[in-house]
Amino acid sequence: MSRRYPIPRPTEAAAIRAAARSPRRLPPVPALMAALVDAVDRSDREGICLASHRVVRAAAPMEVGEA
Questions:
Q1: Rg (alpha carbons) of the chain, rounded to whole number
Q2: How far from the centroid of its chain's Cα atoms is residue 50's Cα?
């Protein structure tokens, strides 16, 4: 059995390039709003922040630099 050291791992830049190859579609605004309401009901501050930012990106993509 041959071992290869160091084990090759993708860098952060390579991972970002791989993720940027295809556009990521956001869920519809009603689904995001439901997630936001659920996060508010659970008092989940991180969930509120994530859901509210995704609602804004989905609702007005041209205003926040998304095309």
A1: 18
A2: 9
